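Hey, quick one: can you model this chain's 3D structure?
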Amino acid sequence: LHCTARGDPVPRIEWSKLRAPLPWQHRVVNGSLVIPRAAQQDSGQYICNVSSPVGSTEVFVTLDVESKKGTAGGWGVPVFLLPPPLWPSPVLPLATSTLTSSPSS
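Sure thing. Here's the predicted structure for all 105 residues.
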């Protein structure tokens, strides 16, 4: 699952499952959540939280993993049912500052 954000300062990306720590075998690589050997128990709601000193936002993703019957009648490879997001990736506003000066008399 991909979660991207950009900004200055660089935002921090964290993943959780149902607001709890991720299962030990899940990894976050460059903001993307990697679930090796996904199984039905990995189904559920995942949250990508993006934060920086400027603010924070989060995106909820529901992952449904189902097993599909193999050609020999046994259970085969997991099938991921993940609809495309209906929103753009969260982007935090850039931290900016403005200096205004006027001539002194």
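One thing worth noting: Strands lie at 12-17, 27-29, 32-34, 44-52, 55-69, 75-81.
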